[in-house]
Every structure is written in structure tokens, then in C-alpha cells.
Amino acid sequence: MLPLAQHLLLLAEPLLAEGVRRLLADTFGADRIVGDLEALKGTPQLVLWFPTAGIDPGALEREARRLSDTWQPAALLIALPHGLAMARQRLLMLPAEGLLLAPGPDDLLQAIQTVIAGGRCVRLPAAPPSQPSEPGPALGLGQWLLISGQQQIDQALWRCDALLAAPPANLLSLLVLEGQRRE
Half-sphere exposure of 118 toward its Cβ, with a 13 Å CA cutoff? Predict the structure, then answer.
């Protein structure tokens, strides 16, 4: 069982919440998983939110900000549904310590462990790399550097995903690639 100093607040549709609660109860203990605000004592250590599939991108951003502000200093982990019509760059700007796209049980448990330990976890599909553009007259130097840096991160993430598609036989190489992807 992992150490969970406080409660984990689970926000999801009732059927999904029950399945996730059962999954997490084995790892963290059933008494630590709270889905009802009346049962919550104090501030949770982690807020785990599963937005509905048809959520509007603007509503997703507003709710993520509201949850982050309301439950401060708790970490926010968002498990996004498949088919969300929102650009990757916009998703990365959400105020959350973790972003997962339709996570499986193992991915969810690993992400929770990472976020509880103080880390960040982002598992979104990487877009194929694009060539960095030259600074245009409409962009200032700071804006261009930010965009260029984001493109470099996307390229590195894409390369790691491509190499991990067929995992290397060498354990050290595998661990290095997984570490670079998390970084």
C-alpha cells in the first residue's frame, strides 16, 4: 500500500467513479478514496478528475482552474476522455500536475504515484514533429523562443514515443527512454 497522507478526492461519473474507487482501494485503502465532499476531512492530497466526454474545451479550462484554486495545495490529475476536441498546446496549459488521455489502470496508478511524490505526469499523444519556424514580424523574441522551445519538446517526445513503440531489449536503454519521456 502506498503512503497517502491525506485523502484522494475522486470526481467522476458515478459508474466510472465506482470502478476507479475499487481499483484505487487496493493500493491506497478504501478509507482514503473520497467521492463525496461531506466525507472529506480537510484538504485532499490529490484531486483526480475524470471530465465527461462531451465537455466543451472552455468549460474544461474553467473547471480545471476552479478545481486547482479550490483545493490548493492539493495536486490536480486530469484523466481526459478520448475524442476531446482540444489542441495539445492548449491542454498543456491547464493548471494540472497530471494529464492523461484515456488512461488504463496501470497508467493511472503510475501517474497517481508520480503526482503524489511531487512529480508531474503528462501522457498525451505526441504530434509528429514540425520544423521550427523563423521568427516573423508579428512575433517578439520571447514569443518566438517559447514556440521554438515547445516545438523542440514535441520533437523529443515524438522521438521517444517512436523508439518506445518497439521497446529496446537493453533494460538501461528502456529506462533512459522512459525517463526522457517523463522529463
Answer: 0
Strand order in the sheet with 98-101: 33-34, 8-11, 46-49, 75-80, 98-101, 121-123
Which residues sit opposite 119 in a β-bridge?
Answer: none
CB contact burial 154-181 (16+ within 10 A = b; e otherwise): bbebbebeebeeeeeeeeeeeeebeeeb
Residue 29 region by backbone torsions, left for phi larger than 0, else alpha for psi between -120 and 50, else beta? left
The structure's pTM equals: 0.67
Closest CA to 47 of 75, 18, 80: 75
| Residue 75, number of CB atoms within 10 A of its CB | 25
Q: Quote the CA–CA distance of 135 and 148 in Å, as a whole number.
A: 9
Distance CA 179, CA 153 (A): 14
Do the Cβ atoms of 78 and 100 come closer than 8 Å?
Answer: yes
- The answer on pLDDT for 63 being more than 90 is yes
Find all residues with CB under 8 Å of 31, minimum gap 6, and list them. Answer: none
At residue 126, the pLDDT reads 62
Average pLDDT over every residue of 113-141: 69
